């Protein structure tokens, strides 16, 4: 078990990076139709979806590199909670049926990062190491 515990900060970094890159993809789809347009998104985007897209791209990029991880993850966790209740909960109770699984998962992974921090491989960790 100790051999696994040594890797925990690095695996935390991998969780943060992969989550942030997947999160950024949602914003890129909204804003730039990359890798494709987000299915069901109106064109032009209403202000709330435009703001969500920029939070996803910029916030996702900051979390991916591990810069200001805790406060940005807090904002993104809240964004996903709001997204779930505004866009998914009204479609039914079960997340697998209302399309809200990703929003819930992003919400709780970002909330975890608020408390756990970015992990070993991050700009935040590099800034802390400076004398």
Automatic annotation (TrEMBL):
Topology in the lipid bilayer: Multi-pass membrane protein
Cross-referenced InterPro entries: DoxX, DoxX-like_oxidoreductase
Transmembrane in keyword set: yes
Annotated localization: Cell membrane
Keyword Amino-acid biosynthesis: no
Keyword line: Cell membrane, Membrane, Transmembrane, Transmembrane helix
Transmembrane segments: 44-65, 96-115
Main location: membrane
Family named by the database record: Belongs to the DoxX family.
Record-given protein name: DoxX family protein
